[in-house]
Amino acid sequence: MPNRPTPQPGILDIAAYVPGKSGASGSKAIKLSANESPLGASPKAIEAFRQAAEHLEIYPEGSSRVLRTALGEVHGIDPDLIVASNGSGDLLHLIAQCYLGQGDEAVMNRYGFSLYPIVTTAAGARIVLVDETDFTADVDALLAAVSERTRIVWLANPNNPTGTYLSDAEVRRLHAGLRPDILLVIDSAYAEYVTAADYSVGQDLVDAAENVVMVRTFSKMGLAAARIGWMYAPEHVVDAVNRIRGPFNVNLPAQMAGAAAARDTEFTARLKAHNAQWREWLTGRLSGNRLRVVPSQANFVLVLFPSETEADAAFEALMAKGLIVRQIGVYGIPQGLRISIGTESAMRAVAEVLKDFQ
Q1: The CATH number of the domain covering residues in 43-264
Q2: Mean pLDDT (whole number) for 182-210
Q3: Which of 112, 109, 168 has its CA nearest to residue 144?
Q4: Contact (CB, 8 A) for 95 and 152
Q5: What's the pTM?
């Protein structure tokens, strides 16, 4: 018998999530490591947050009704089929807890979001990593990896940290190849930044199927500090997740700020336009004989260097100029740096430093 409490089997085998680096408190470093909004938050969201701060003594409404109503209006979906949460990562944990257990498997592409293995293993299941084609999820390979033990397929679309995406047709082909008892989780965290005409957030597929969930977040559109995520899912999935989520899992200021941000479509459009302009500019400026920029539909680019040594040298050169980007060896791409799309001045500064590596 152990002489102290011990975690469940597998918990201590989990590699903890590693966030992007930040500058020291009070430093003037420019953070381009966490895919945050370069334009701040919606002014309407900020004002709503301030007003909510006058009522910190009361519990928030438990179902995030105000937030769900706003999301329903903006996206044209039934608010009763939405679950709000303390960031989308919380929802991924809840989904895994509901649908995975000992002996089960969940499938994901090799360079998918690093939280998927964590939530899968924490639920007692096994993660199955599937090789990609040119840093893009391969539908045929994903389907080939499905076994009788598969219960979930995780798909970030666009993907983090590569920025690549699957078209609506390819996502539908993936879904069509899955058994009806397998849950397809479409993580559309970067949907607001996609400009590709053949992309779909997954909302229509949720409407048409009983085994598809769409997960979204406000973190990439200016409210990372507020921690607001949401899920659109069939009624039976909503019911299951609501049974185990915390009763007050989204705080009042976050609910109010999220509702205001959802309705501020003008700000969202401005953020998207800024990102598209500077994503294209940075991609063109960095692409060369020695550097490759993976085509991105997100609010970051993945820059591939000839070697891990050169990627590390570029990281240090950027750090020396106060530019913090993301090393992604944890994803199995040690020769890459992920660079968030920031302000014009930040993008020009990054290009200036990295010209010596081209």
Answers
A1: 3.40.640.10
A2: 98
A3: 109
A4: yes
A5: 0.94
